[in-house]
Specification:
By secondary structure, the chain is α/β, with parallel strands linked by helices. It has 3 domains: 118 residues, NAD(P)-binding Rossmann-like Domain (Rossmann fold), CATH 3.40.50; 229 residues, Rossmann fold; 37 residues, no CATH class. It has 19 helices and 14 strands. The strands form 4 sheets. The protein has a 7-stranded parallel beta sheet with strand order 8-7-6-9-10-11-12. Strands 3-4-5 form a 3-stranded parallel beta sheet, sandwiched between helices. Strands 1-2 form a two-stranded parallel sheet. Helix 7 crosses helix 10, helix 8 packs across helix 16 and helix 15 crosses helix 18. The protein is globular and about 65 Å long. The two termini are 26 Å apart. The N terminus is likely disordered. One of its GO terms (molecular function) is hydroxypyruvate reductase [NAD(P)H] activity.
């Protein structure tokens, strides 16, 4: 599987230009881009085919002069959280602006209050990245519990024949997992973790009447009753440094923290101190307080897994995100309703019911197998090395991985371990394939496809 996304093979080219000859740039709707995010970089030609892109990042003019030159014509702006912040001051320089389009789900980089005051519409990509983010969260969790990145380095260095046995990791099944933010991503994450035999509880702004998980009114209380704390909530002024000394102290020396939300939700200085001093057992992080700068004290720790903010991104999801961004822009310029106004997300539908398992090693082996699969598809171990070597600030973009959901997974041997792997992968939306009898198929209660 190659790294480049080819929009021609994904059906975007015909969709965007309607199959007709390209229009002169001057006749196309104007789209302002201050600095290009990854989506724009990957699909720049698709944007240029549809819009007269006002490229502030290529202009010799200072930004204020560039904005002044286009102040009366720029009606829409495309922005990405890491590279562009939409502030009230910026909006003042764009009096004609009517639409802000984020190329991701998060809108914490946009001053929503200022947009509301001006009547500026805001659109995001809805839930297009939520499944991949949930997958990545599980992958990070297994990576830190089972030491996947360290195990990979152990083998690559040739240490196995010399040092013998690699240190044991920790079991996932039976762990109490607290989810901070049971929204779209949090719900998908909970479903996946149930497939591993975890006991899920949560904290959210309000108790979810439809959720069957235990609700804790405060994050401190959630941490007290959790072995693992996973951050899925959005960043607001109320959630900034929500994970502080009190929460980490409640999580305790055996606790694990996973952050797939936003970096500033965690008091990073305090977290680093807890990890260095062994006051919590470990952490897996895809986001940081001052990206792409990561605290150097983390680089030498064996109890952390580090990733360069790639939890949401797969090649497949980027193709879907492009369609949504283009759809929102098309809707705006044709005076139609936006496809995904900010904070309007899709709904999750349960796929399977999960039973319990009783064998000693089979659950851990199945967990490890799924962890390895996510690791190789989403490049978690390589991402950890990328961050530890200090390459993120230099190289900026890390290569995309591949979506887990929807993949056809063939299992050779649907015995005790194989059936557990099947259960877990079914929760990720995989199509499980194996040669089995009708009786076995019925007993598994899984969407399996017998092979001929």
């Amino acid at each position: 599987m190659g790294q480049e996304i080819n929009p021609q093979t994904n059906g975007f080219h015909h969709h965007l230009n309607g199959g007709g000859p390209p229009l002169p740039a001057a006749d196309l709707p104007e789209l302002l881009v201050l600095r290009p995010g990854l989506l724009y970089k990957v699909f720049e030609q698709e944007f240029l085919a549809k819009f007269n892109v006002l490229k502030a990042f290529e202009s010799p003019l200072p930004l204020d002069k560039f904005l002044l030159a286009h102040a009366q014509s720029a009606r829409a702006i495309l922005c990405e959280a890491i590279v562009t912040r939409i502030t009230a001051d910026l909006l003042l320089q764009l009096p004609a602006l009517e639409l802000v389009v984020a190329d991701g789900t998060g809108v914490n980089h946009i001053d929503l209050a200022a947009c509301r005051r001006r009547g500026i519409a805001v659109a995001n990509t809805g839930d297009v990245f939520s499944e991949d983010t949930a997958d990545y969260g599980v992958g990070l969790l297994i990576a830190v519990l089972r030491r996947l990145s360290r195990a990979d380095a152990f083998v690559r260095r040739g240490s196995w024949p010399v040092l013998g046995e690699f240190p044991l990791g920790l079991k996932l099944r039976g762990k109490r997992v607290g989810i901070v933010g049971l929204g779209n991503i949090g719900t998908k994450l909970a479903k996946r973790l149930e497939a591993f035999g975890c006991k899920v509880s949560y904290n959210s702004r309000t108790k979810k009447q439809s959720a069957r998980y235990d609700f804790h009114p405060t994050v401190v209380d959630l941490a007290l009753h959790s072995d693992i704390l996973i951050i899925c909530c959005s960043l607001t002024e109320k959630t900034r440094h929500l994970i502080n000394d009190d929460v980490l102290n409640a999580l305790g020396m055996s606790g694990i923290l996973v952050n797939i939300g936003r970096g500033p939700i965690v008091d990073e200085k305090t977290l680093v101190s807890y990890l260095v001093e062994g006051k919590i057992a470990g952490a897996a992080m895809d986001v940081y307080e001052n990206e792409p700068n990561v605290p150097s004290k983390l680089f030498g720790l064996d109890n952390v897994v580090l990733s360069p903010h790639r939890g949401a991104f797969t090649e497949e999801a980027f193709g879907d995100a492009l369609k949504i961004v283009m759809g929102n822009l098309d809707a705006f310029f044709s005076n139609s309703p936006l496809l995904t106004p900010a904070r309007v997300l899709g709904k999750f539908r349960a796929r399977i019911d999960i039973g319990a398992w009783n064998f000693v090693f089979s659950t851990d082996t199945a967990d490890y197998a799924v962890g390895l699969l996510i690791d190789v598809m989403r490049k978690i171990t390589a991402a950890d090395g990328f961050v530890r070597r200090g390459l993120w600030p230099l190289a900026s973009e890390y290569p995309l991985g591949f979506k887990v959901g929807g993949k056809r997974v063939g299992i050779v041997g649907l015995g005790n371990i194989g059936s557990k792997v099947a259960k877990r992968l079914a929760a990720f939306g995989c199509n499980i394939r194996q040669t089995i009898t009708s009786l076995q198929l019925l007993s598994m209660n899984l969407p399996l496809t017998p092979t001929s």
